[in-house]
Amino acid sequence: MRVGIGAVVGVLGGPATYACELIGALARLGGHDYVVFTDQPDAFAGVDAATVHVPLRTRYHQVMWDHWSLPSLLEERGVQLYHGTKNVLPWRLPVPGVVTVHDLAVYACPETFALPQRWHLRALIPRSVARSARVLADSEHARQDILSRFGVAPERVATVPLGVTDAYRCPAAEPLVARLRRTHGLGERVIACVGTVQPRKHIERVIEAFVRTGAEEQGWTLAIAGRVRPHHAPKWLGALPPGTRFLGALDDDDLRALYATAAIAMSASEYEGFGLTILEAMAGGCAVIAVGTTSIPEVVGDAGVLVAESDSALLAGALAALIRDPARRAGLADAGRRRAAAFTWEETARRTRAVYEEALTCA
User: Fold this and answer.
1) In this structure, are strands 220-225 and 244-248 parallel, antiparallel, or unpaired?
2) Phi/psi at 124 (nearest 5 deg)?
3) With CB atoms 3.0 to 4.6 Å apart as the test, which of 7, 219, 286, 349 could cross-link to 281 if both were Cys?
4) Residue 220's pLDDT is what?
5) Which CATH architecture has domain 166-340?
6) Does the predicted model carry a pTM greater than 0.85?
7) CATH 3.40.50.2000 residue spans of the chain
8) Superfamily (CATH) of domain 2-163+344-362
9) Are 333 and 285 in contact (CB under 8 A)?
């Protein structure tokens, strides 16, 4: 069949990584024709799939992108099934649809969303779930959220975990690591905190934990990396404590270099649909500290340190224990690599393709 896939990838983050990696893996897997409707066709150069450029002027024009631009293009390209990879389906959809709902944070943590985004997602996610042939969830936690909130028949919602890019499993080239250290003034002992800078990630609690442990006096640097969500200006950005660096948004090579540099990766996020940055840190050889709520235990298992809640004192206790115990850090790094090896984009693509086939059969 011919499958159309919507892929907004011009805004860095988990949904963009998901769309790019899934489409590449589907094309390698073969079996169907894929047409990618995207704001950034260059992101799919070298992928064996047709691309259709659907311009997106700003991230605030997402509503027009989904509901005004796409429907006629789907008809023109003769797709038989459409997959919305970022939580919603077009209002007017001429073919059966599959939608990936990454999480329901807009309900669980509404205060962390800008009002227009909150309105858009709350208006469109329920409708997209109701009219889709199948719904994909990144984790069993996300699936249960969808089932309990929207009353969907269980057989219509499939859990398909994400993968980790193979490049993260390979050591970063030493010149890249050296350049990253030099550019950002990183020492030999590094703690990484990676993710979009937005309220739900609670990066301030990671900073507080770092300060509480006195890690800077022991030669450690806290490196925070990620794009800053528009209109979000946390106070810590203007007053970083000693030993803390803000690296901003990193490209893939620099992010791999950061994980290669860091011995420990920390997250204070208490709500995740999956936890892709945590998985990438594990694949990159970091000992991980995270919060054991929502989907995060499904990703980390027993290959990291999970604290009961997003609390700076709990995070500081976990960090202090790892700083004191290099053998345990090394053991967790090895365990993390082994666990991350089970999460591949090829498996994500195989399970997603099976959902496509099922969706078209019962549409």
Assistant:
1) parallel
2) -100, -30
3) 286
4) 97
5) 3-Layer(aba) Sandwich (3.40)
6) yes
7) 2-163+344-362, 166-340
8) Glycogen Phosphorylase B; (3.40.50.2000)
9) yes
